[in-house]
């Protein structure tokens, strides 16, 4: 008699990178919103600027790269699908990102939002939330096609609409088909009631 494999599938790791103003944060938030509970959203700016209050420069031997990827690893180990977004410059983050990807047994999808500098400025100036930096700051940060150079990296150009970008990430990463693995969406009575309502609406339509 064959014993069934009861091991849970490994969660999905999604990395969304791009220059400031490329739309990665808004995109990542929408991807997580559409997935629902069971996916952890990790934003580089929040973890580095707010949690650590660390400047993003190499001269200080920054803690942020290790801290951010360790946080992602912990969330994955706890069963969360992870959506990690940020500029994540290869100069400082390539090594730790490659380690995170190579050491993850589950699905990995990496996306780079390839947007020209002029377009990043236009998008920056249209932000609903005012930002403390200027286009001059953005020019000093801008890096053309700062790819991780791995086989699983998908480049999304600026001609894609927001909806196309979100849809591409959801489908290419497999988040449209994987189930949440964390306790809240699997066992929480509130989540169960919400799922029942969604099923009822779907069946009635």
From TrEMBL:
Protein name per the record: Kinase
InterPro entries per UniProt: P-loop_NTPase
Cross-referenced Pfam families: AAA_33
